[in-house]
Design a protein that fits this description.
Elements: H1 18-83, H2 88-115, H3 122-138
């Protein structure tokens, strides 16, 4: 990974100057940082590709699960119609009403859970206030 070469601007048998040593260290540090950035970009690209593949799988699975749910709901409607000898519109009303109640309950549960979410984490906010207070006391 590191292709660091010995310094060639120093004559054999002489000690390198402090300036050339510092320059060499800075050059090596810059090269190392560039290589680390390139590695990070490559790794992020690989992870992004994995995330895209997972998202396509999730979306496809969600689509098929949704279609399955629709067909199962239609099956429940016709099952009620046949077994309970109800009119077809009454069967649709019962299945739709049950699904509506379940959906409404889940919506309310989600709303209550969303209300509990703090956009600014309280412990972090408290720590930041303490740090700001400490900095003000130091000046």
């Amino acid at each position: 990974m590191a292709d660091l070469q010995p310094r060639t601007d120093v004559l054999p048998g002489t000690q390198p100057s402090m300036a050339s040593l510092v320059t060499g260290i800075i050059d090596d540090a810059q090269k190392l940082i560039r290589q680390e950035m390139e590695l990070a970009k490559r790794e992020i690209g690989q992870e992004w590709d994995k995330a895209k593949t997972a998202a396509v799988s999730f979306a496809t699975g969600f689509l098929f699960a949704g279609l399955s749910g629709i067909l199962l709901c239609l099956m429940c409607v016709y099952l009620l119609h046949e077994v309970a000898d109800l009119r077809l519109w009454v069967s649709y009303l019962i299945v739709g009403g049950v699904l509506g109640l379940i959906g409404g309950g889940l919506f309310l549960l989600g709303k209550f859970r969303a209300d509990e979410v703090n956009v600014i984490p309280p412990q972090t906010a408290q720590t930041l206030k303490e740090n700001a207070q400490w900095i003000q006391n130091q000046t």
